[in-house]
Design a protein that fits this description.
Pfam families: HIT. GO terms for molecular function: catalytic activity. One of its GO terms (biological process) is nucleotide metabolic process. This is HIT domain-containing protein. This protein is an alpha+beta fold and 137 residues long. It has a single domain, classed as HIT family, subunit A (2-Layer Sandwich), CATH 3.30.428.10. The protein is built from 3 helices and 5 strands; from the N terminus they run αβββαββα. The protein has a 5-stranded antiparallel β-sheet. α2 packs across α3. The protein is globular, with a radius of gyration of 14 Å. The N and C termini lie far apart (36 Å). It binds guanosine-5'-monophosphate. The site of guanosine-5'-monophosphate has 13 residues, from β2.
Length: 137
């Protein structure tokens, strides 16, 4: 499969679409999920174009996981939670809807995971959660 540079996350990376960002460096971006499966649902993406984890350069994957860990710690501290579901869907068959590799950090239990990419969240509330995560970084 060829990487589609018009996918939503590619457009967010180019600044063509807005996102509520919590962390950014030259290789990775972390931002709030627009249809959260729980309060504080955050996405971490490498900036390099890759569709799934299987396509991703291993060194970039390793660095991205370091950022995933950093954001997970900030979610726990900033939101006062103590459990996070780390989810990574590789391929449409697995349920992946946006074809740019990403890691979901969902502060909830596996048993309470809401519906996937189903309902727009309250963007004001999401902004407030993002501020708390950023403050804990
Ligand atoms: P996937 O199904 O590919 O694993 O996850 C894609 C995620 O991106 C879903 O959780 C969905 O809610 C989220 N999402 C879809 N469109 C947008 C968008 O425009 N902005 C943001 N921030 N998240 C999005």
């Amino acid at each position: 499969m060829t990487y589609d540079d018009q996918n939503i996350f590619a457009r967010i990376l180019r600044g063509e679409l807005p996102a509520i960002k919590v962390y950014e460096d030259d290789q990775v971006l972390a931002f709030m999920d627009i249809m959260p499966q729980a309060d504080g649902h955050t996405l971490v993406i490498p900036k390099t174009p890759a569709i799934t984890l299987l396509d991703l350069d291993p060194e970039i994957a390793a660095y991205t996981i370091q950022v995933v860990q950093k954001i997970a710690k900030a979610i726990e501290k900033g939101l006062g939670v103590d459990g996070i579901v780390l989810m990574q869907l590789s391929g449409a068959t697995a349920g992946q809807t946006v074809p740019h590799v990403h890691f979901h950090l969902v502060p909830t239990s596996l048993h309470n995971l809401g519906k996937h990419a189903a309902q727009m969240g309250d963007q004001e509330k999401i902004k407030q959660l993002a501020e708390k995560i950023k403050a804990a970084l």
